């Protein structure tokens, strides 16, 4: 006799894994620190490109996955903590031949991308909390929504915050070179989330 599997209520993967929504403060702190550490590690996987000041990193995928798995508030908190560590001067940002570690990164060419991370994680988490991460197509939409915020902030800062760049150059150097790789990142991230939900069920 087959047993009917009840659908899981709305919520995040984190809540589903621990089976309860009233997560302790200590447990929340641990998962936030872990996701922040993953962001730092992803930043070290950095490939500089000769035609743009923006390096290729794995950070966007980790940012979006953290937001989707932990929810909007905890996901955003991981990225605020990441930026705070960077502003404090710890070597958490991607390597740069021009700018040192520290607050200078937030006013450099990649500042817009970095400052977008808390908002991108929040948006991905907000959509995931409403069930977008449970099916492949809606998971793609959630990841794409978060990534579009990263690009919007990054291009806006390159175009209007960095002298002598302009909008067309910002798009050509801050978006176009990364589209193929970021499509792969979205596909991978969107595949991971529904797969984990199936396992949780």
Structural description of this entry:
The protein is 66% helix and 2% strand. The chain is built from 9 helices and 2 strands. A two-stranded antiparallel sheet has the order 1-2. A hairpin with an 8-residue loop joins strand 1 and strand 2. Helix 2 crosses helix 4 and helix 4 packs antiparallel against helix 6.
Which keywords apply here?
201 residues, mainly alpha, Arp2/3 complex 21 kDa subunit ARPC3, two-stranded antiparallel ribbon, 9 helices, 66% helix, globular
Described by the principal axes of the CA atoms, the overall outline is globular
What amount of the residues lies in strands? under 5%
Strand arrangement within the widest β-sheet reads 1-2
Number of strand segments: 2
Element-by-element helix/strand order: HHEEHHHHHHH
Q: Give me the CATH fold name.
A: Arp2/3 complex 21 kDa subunit ARPC3
* Rg value: 18 Å
* Termini gap: 18 Å
Low-confidence stretches: 1-8
> What percent of residues adopt helix (DSSP H or I)?
55-70%
Mean pLDDT: 86
Q: Largest sheet, if any?
A: 2 strands, antiparallel
SS-based class: mainly alpha
Number of helices: 9
Subunit organisation of the chains = single chain
CATH architecture: Orthogonal Bundle
Number of domains as seen in the coordinates: 1
């Amino acid at each position: 006799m087959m047993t009917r599997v009840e659908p899981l209520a709305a919520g995040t993967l984190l809540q589903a894994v621990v089976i309860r929504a009233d997560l302790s403060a200590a447990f929340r702190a641990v998962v936030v620190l872990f996701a922040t550490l993953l962001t730092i590690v992803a930043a070290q996987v950095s490939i500089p490109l000769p035609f743009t000041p923006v390096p290729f990193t794995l950070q966007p995928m980790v940012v979006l996955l953290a937001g989707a798995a932990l929810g909007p508030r905890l996901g955003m908190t991981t990225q605020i903590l990441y930026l705070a560590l960077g502003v404090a001067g710890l070597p958490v940002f991607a390597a740069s031949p021009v700018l040192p570690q520290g607050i200078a990164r937030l006013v450099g060419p990649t500042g817009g991308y970095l400052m977008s991370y808390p908002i991108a994680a929040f948006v991905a988490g907000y959509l995931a909390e409403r069930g977008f991460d449970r099916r492949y197509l809606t998971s793609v939409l959630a990841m794409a929504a978060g990534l579009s915020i990263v690009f919007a902030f990054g291009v806006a800062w390159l175009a209007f915050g960095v002298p002598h760049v302009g909008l067309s150059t910002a798009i050509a150097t801050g978006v176009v070179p990364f589209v193929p790789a970021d499509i792969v990142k979205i596909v991978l991230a969107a595949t991971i989330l529904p797969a984990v939900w199936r396992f949780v069920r």
